[in-house]
């Protein structure tokens, strides 16, 4: 396993786990951490033994944003020429399901990182926000787009224009997170969700993910056509035969991911 300094990685059965680990900076996303997360994601994507990727932080912070100390001296030319934060698109492009388990602060780039994941589970201690405006910038890792799609215009505008943080309950009511659980149970629950997904047929889970994601990119009619074509394609897999045979035989399915 690659040696990382700003993250911890571990494999739990078919789940690849990434734990952000820069406690001295509340897991602020500096270049090294971004590079390490994306490297770990690439490794899990390539590993046929991994069916889901779980990303989490600490009790106090999922991530308190992009690293302000690293960003502060940069010029417009630096950010433009280096296409600052564009690399995070790689996580959005991940084909295996990703789960974010958020406790504590998920601010700025931290909130955006959580929103890059497919399933977002929150501890009751979670606080979400896009406070970039207070620093004289705006969200730069998709926050103005993904937050708006998740919670609607009025709440996204208020959060992006005032920097107001929202708690876990408000985030759940607004549709930003799939579920809120007591902080002490966050990791157990997140592992359960990840293991459940990883226990499904991998190609089918990837098709399901691709189909849901399509809804953000296309018209309803095209999205439904896309879904139907993929649905038809599931019948080309051994796992469709196994899944339906198992139901008929009243036994659990044994998917072989083909
Ligand atoms: C760099 C950070 C950091 C960050 C915290 N730290 N957030 N360092 N970048 N985003 C560091 C602090 O400087 C401090 O280091 C240590 O972590 C602990 O933080 P404290 O502030 O002392 O902790 P606390 O008082 O508990 O306050 C927690 C907090 C606060 C409310 C989360 O740290 C905070 O407001 N952080 C910034 C949140 C933010 O604005 N995020 C958006 C970033 S911009 P020292 O060395 O002093 O101990 C962003 C842009 C995305 O994400 C893309 C578009 C540009």
TrEMBL record:
CDD domains according to UniProt: crotonase-like
Cross-referenced Gene3D superfamilies: 2-enoyl-CoA Hydratase, Chain A, domain 1, Lyase 2-enoyl-coa Hydratase, Chain A, domain 2
Keyword Lyase: yes
Top-level taxon of origin: Bacteria
The UniProt record lists the keyword Isomerase: no
Enzyme Commission number(s) of this protein: 4.2.1.17
A GO molecular-function annotation: enoyl-CoA hydratase activity
PROSITE patterns attached to this UniProt entry: ENOYL_COA_HYDRATASE
Class of this enzyme: lyase
Catalysed reactions listed for this entry: a 4-saturated-(3S)-3-hydroxyacyl-CoA = a (3E)-enoyl-CoA + H2O; a (3S)-3-hydroxyacyl-CoA = a (2E)-enoyl-CoA + H2O
Descriptive protein name: Enoyl-CoA hydratase
